[in-house]
Amino acid sequence: MKTCxxxxxxxxxxxxxxxxxxxxxxxxxxxxPTLCYLxxxxxxxxxxxxxxxxxxxxxxxxxxLFTSCNNVVTDNMIITTHxxxxxxxxxxxxxxxxxxxxxxCLICDKNQNCELQSLAAEYQIDRYRYEGKKSxxxxxxxxxxxxxxxxxxxxxxxxxxxxxxxxxxxxxSAINRGFKSTVATAFNQxxxxxxxxxxxxxxxxxxxxxxxxxNHTNEVLKLLNDNKKFVxxxxxxxxxxxxxxxxxxxxxxxxxxxxVSALKLLGFDKIFDSNFxxxxxxxxxATELITRVKENKNLPxxxxxxPAWVKFIEHQYPDQLNLVSTCKSPQEMLGSLSKSYxxxxxxxxxxxxxxxxxxxxxxxxxxxxxxxLKTNNFPSVDYVLSTNExxxxxxxxxxxxxDLQEGQFDDFMGESTGAATIFGVTGxxxxxxxxxxxxxxxxxxxxxxxxxxxxxxxxxxxASYDVAGIKINVAVAHGLKNARKLLEEIKTGKSKYHAxxxxxxxxxxxxxxxxxxxxxxxxxxxxxTSLYQDDVNNPIRYSDENPAIEKLYKEFLQKPGSHLSHELxxxxxxx
Length: 575
Ligand code: HC0
Ligand code: SF4
What we know:
This protein has 575 residues and is of the alpha/beta class. Helix content is 34%, strand content 15%.
């Protein structure tokens, strides 16, 4: 590839032809501020709308300032990124953005976490110089995952880019002109009435308070203070490798023990691990896979643990719902067992037993409201808190997280295997399933528990395994655009797979919208590495070897796929 020699703030470098100025500047260690531009390769996100204009720079020999996010370098270009003229210009842009922005930062959900606020501070904006006409759009509180406040939208178009290009759901587009411009749903419908999957990826890229998560910390605090309630909590695989980042620890730090101690201090009565239920899912799902392969029916089996993905297929490919695994997600399985078996064991009235989940995901907040996932007419899970909300609760309680001792999950639903922990990263569910399916079909363990073809951040991964004379073709997709490709293959009869894992969020649950914000791909890679290490550190690597699961079947469920298992752990989807 041809290269260009450029000078940026006096530093000379050579970059590939076609490199944007903002990316070239990064290579010499200069971060040009941006509010709309976003480039996260691992997630497949590239927003280059050039709408905010904050990234302006000077180019020698040219009179005007240029936006650096969408202009590419040319040979011998001389660029200045930080002159007085540039600073004054950026200040003016920030002031203009603030001119019609609701100035309620102190009571905004994004306070201290807002990119516009940070830039205003960085550029020492000390007055409101311009007064723009404020829009008066209603707040959209129609669902339990994503809150929209269009008055805070700065028209960066990141949400639109992610929803269109990464998820292919296409919920948003810009409407109106002038001060009335905003980004909205079709006919400005509430999100709940659209085909939104509640994946929350739009929330994780929004630079301001225009898109935020639906916060449930106060509801949970009330329950923890209610003596009549027995409050159980479960923690998802991906939370343990991201929570520490909110306490200043390095990305990917594994903080399982400290997280458990913090939950104890917050007052939860029992602390369980969604990983236990992930093992249970594998045992049920591998059984289901083998039955379908032997009967050559309803193939490929599609994983069902990601609620955003399930909602996607329900809206977009309802004819393929017979392919979705009937297994409930691990969070729902654990909730279901809590409201039935645990309540019975402890002698607690299920009406007084509350289940809270700590999840990396916003769609999990929606999943718990689904009628078909109830247990004996009670929601299996009552509230879902994201990793970010849990950190906020820990901080508010004055808990010094980094000083905590390593706590242990409670018995009964606290024990898990290495296969369960890798659920949190794209490919992990399939790898765990293959480990157990191999054993079920051959009666032997594979040479190694690692199935590395299913690892990494390629949009679609595939592998073929010869198991006891049966050829099993599997695929893994993350991000709904990639899922759509596989569903199109099925639709046209071209799919060669027996099993497909799909996670709506790019990179899997580690990149969920309830996780601490990542500005580059390094954090995601570190979280993934850490989960794979957590797997290796576990002396048990196969879900079907989890002793707590063996006990559960012996004492209660009888066997995988039993009548009771179906009643409590499976569901069905209607078109
Ligand atoms: Fe996931 Fe899950 S792995 S969806 O990504 O299967 O949210 O972490 O908790 O339920 O276990 C999310 C993460 C879970 C579930 C599990 C699955
Ligand atoms: Fe699109 Fe997901 Fe946001 Fe819904 S939550 S609007 S599907 S990005």
